[in-house]
Amino acid sequence: MRLVIPDNSAEAPQESALIKSQLQAVGISLVVQSVPAQQFFDSFVTGGDFDLALFSWQGTLFPISAALPIYASPTVTSNGIVVHQNYARIGSADIDQLFAKATAELDRAKAIQLGNQIDVAIWKEVHSLTLYQLPQLFAERRTLANFGAFGFASLNYQTIGFTGS
Question: What is the pTM of this model?
Fold first, then answer.
């Protein structure tokens, strides 16, 4: 297998060494290819010229609609450019239909239920593995309550405010 990494990333060499050793432990050899950062996405990721690639997506407060471009069936233009962010070019009609229902659903509980169904359908395809979440760092006044790095939690603006001391 071939892992493509951008040459300007401080973390990628360490991450690729760890991945290489873990794959080697199960009998899979990995070649790590460092490529010019300016070409990483256009020539390799978007072009589909990789087995594995290290990059990140930014999460949002709307995880279902934010994940749609990553897991929706790929649309490829006549010149081979992938429309969306489904760089693995793997998808299914089932996933697309579930996303359509979930993004149109106004009832939060029903949307979450559909999101869980999407998760099951995505894991049946398993084209992308989220390895870890990077920490967020926030600095705020000691008197600001209920605001900071939230990870996968929702931000509830109704509970944010200043305390008396």
Answer: 0.67
